[in-house]
Design brief:
Elements lengths: L4 H69 L3 H10 L7 E4 L2 H6 L2 H8 L3 E3 L7 H14 L5 E5 L24 H10 L1 H9 L3 H4 L6 H9 L22 H8 L10 H17 L2 E6 L4 H6 L3 H14 L3 E4 L20 H32 L1
Parallel strand pairs: 1-2, 1-3, 3-4, 4-5
Helix pairs in contact: 1-9, 4-14, 5-6, 5-11, 6-7
């Protein structure tokens, strides 16, 4: 029988397709298997990367928590003072507030022995009035209110903070809104990072490797004590700091007077009035030659006097202190050394004792006349 060529051609094509069909399916199966294996390898690699970064994150968060915990366990020095304050373990009858001049000028031990009132120093290095008020508010949140607050004034008391000095001293306690919110108003972004980004406050803006103290604190170690009821005396004698400062500012200096700084002092006065705390303003000793360099000193002290008179406050000015021209009592133009602080604390304690005695006598007279 004769088969036409088109039919034969179709049969040959069919045979060819059938013959090649298993090979195509095999190649596809192998490709699918290879693709699946590749996806599995890629997935495993991604999982290992995710696991690695997860371990890093856990380490970072864990180390941050360890440092914070350790700093809160320290019993001595600067962090020891902050821990006593934040635990509510102070409860002093007299509290001293202010800058580094407060911190190194007022010895609570002398105040306490002369007046019979317990005393504590809340002074902070590198702080302006706004930060000092924030520290005081945190203190009042956790401790009984004192009978008296002695607030140390500076020529720069009316200047607002532009940058938080040594922020690590506050980082472990930023859970406290009374401390966090004022610092946040000064530097919103950095303060948020100090509280929320692990290790940022300890590694980026720490001036003194405090993270090492934190690890030591977590292991039960505390540094040598150099704070006494919050007071941090300066053991150094007179340095050449003032000589260099004077040479650089031979034409004198003008301290800023900011509206924000004035509001901070007003806030301090409001807090004391609302809580029934007596506020005494004190300008502690300053090296005499420095006083001559401040061009707007008369204006600033006029503001101090007006502030005291308007709010019926005591203002004790030690600008003319008997040793203000003797470098043997100072470390630099702004700070007394330990010997100077001892003499000044004695002088202030005597003035405070006499003031309290007179006040008690007046109160007794008032009671007798009723």
């Amino acid at each position: 029988m004769q088969i036409d060529e088109p039919s034969a051609s179709r049969e040959k094509g069919l045979v060819s397709e059938v013959a090649t069909l298993p090979l195509d399916l095999g190649e596809r199966a192998e490709g699918t298997a290879a693709g699946g294996e590749g996806a599995r390898v890629q997935g495993a690699a991604l999982a290992r990367i995710a696991c690695f970064f997860g371990m890093i994150a856990a380490l970072v968060f864990g180390l941050d928590s360890l440092i914070t915990y350790g700093l809160r366990q320290i019993k001595t020095s600067q962090f020891g003072v902050s821990n006593r304050v934040m635990r509510g373990a102070v409860n002093a009858e007299i509290v001293i507030t202010g800058s580094s001049r407060a911190l190194s000028h007022y010895d609570p031990r002398i105040l306490q022995s002369r007046t019979g009132y317990s005393a504590f120093n809340l002074g902070r290095n590198g702080s302006q009035t706004d930060v000092q008020v924030a520290v005081l508010k945190a203190y009042l949140e956790h401790n009984r209110k004192p009978k008296i607050i002695i607030h140390n004034l500076d020529s720069f008391s009316f200047e607002a903070t532009r940058q938080v000095y040594n922020p690590v001293q506050y980082v472990p306690y930023l859970y406290d809104e009374e401390l966090y919110q004022p610092l946040r108003r000064i530097d919103h972004q950095k303060t948020w990072k100090w509280r929320n980004l692990p290790l940022y406050g300890y590694l980026v803006d720490d001036m003194g490797f405090s993270w090492m103290l934190g690890i030591g604190g977590a292991l039960g170690w505390s540094p040598a004590e150099d704070y006494y009821m919050g007071f941090n005396p300066r053991s150094k004698g007179w340095t050449d700091e003032f000589t260099r400062f004077k040479a650089m500012n031979s034409g004198g200096v003008t301290w800023p007077v900011d509206a924000e700084g004035q509001e901070s002092i007003d806030e301090l006065i409001r807090i004391c009035r609302q809580q029934g705390i007596e506020l005494i303003l004190v300008y502690s000793p300053e090296y005499a030659e420095m006083q001559k360099l401040v061009k707007n000193r008369a204006k600033i002290f006029t503001m101090f006097h007006e502030l005291a008179e308007h709010n019926h406050l005591q203002f004790w000015d030690y600008s003319g202190w008997k040793h203000s021209d003797d470098t043997g009592y100072f470390t630099n133009s702004q700070h007394l050394n330990a010997a100077g602080a001892k003499v000044f604390s004695g002088d202030l304690s005597e003035q405070l004792r006499q003031y309290l005695d007179r006040k008690a006598g007046t109160d007794m007279d008032l009671l007798s006349s009723k």
